[in-house]
Amino acid sequence: MTPPEDLLALDPSAERDMPYRAGSPNAPARAPRPKDAATLILIQHTHAGPKILMGRRASGHSFMPDKYVFPGGKVDRSDRFVEAHDELSAQSAEDLSKANKTRHPRAFALAAIRETWEETGLLIGKPGALAVRTLDAGWTSFAAAGVAPHLRPLHFFARAITPPQRHKRFDARFFIANADEALYDMRPARDGAEMEDLRWFSLDEAFTLDLPNVTRFILSEVQTRLKTPEKPHAPAFLRWGRNGSQMDRL
């Protein structure tokens, strides 16, 4: 696993991954407050080894354009209240509750499922009906497929807060799931307005992509987990303080 303090040397934009310094080049006038976000790491186990779904953020994005990432995005206020086929495991719910006073644990998992649908066209769910009158646009199109969200296969895996030098910041919760267990069907992922070149990459291929430092760290965590699946894996928590990056276990 790459130590967090070594990640800054891996990206030409490393200056923006340093502790906040007012007046430094390209820095915002004030460090933005992070917004809650959720990300899903789908693992496809093949004869050739595990593969991970990733895509390239569109060039028009103001936040990390052209970088390869996992599907994910901001948590919406309504996500918590969407009906589901089942719920998160007790362990994931407990871990998500640590140092989190504003969001219900299921809101993060449901946001990850919704964002995966919106960005890739893949459904994490089981046959079922949702009350469309209570749903926002993303969930309305999800419900039209006759599918209810399937939370049980999602395991809370890591948390990372975007460095304060960035103009946009997210407090992201990362989930990991076995694609065979989580996906409603094995339809191919589709490119869209937000993500392009969506593919299932081997770990070796993924590490050669143009990755944000946080994504590279999370990918290292995935690699460690896949190599030693029998060992307990406490979720990592990566963030930036006055002296640089800091990683703890939740």
CATH architecture assignment: Alpha-Beta Complex
Report the radius of gyration as a whole number of Å: 17 Å
Content-based structural category: alpha+beta
Major β-sheet, in short?
9 strands, mixed
The low-pLDDT segments are 1-20
Overall helicity: 10-25%
Number of strands: 11
Q: What is the highest CATH level, the class?
A: Alpha Beta
The secondary-structure element order is EEEEHHEHEEEHEHHEE
Shape: globular
- Let me know the CATH homologous superfamily: Nucleoside Triphosphate Pyrophosphohydrolase
What is the typical, i.e. mean, pLDDT?
86
Q: Can you tell me the number of structural domains?
A: 1
Strand content: 25-35%
What is the CATH topology assignment?
Answer: Nucleoside Triphosphate Pyrophosphohydrolase
* Amino-to-carboxy terminus distance: 18 Å
Number of helices: 6
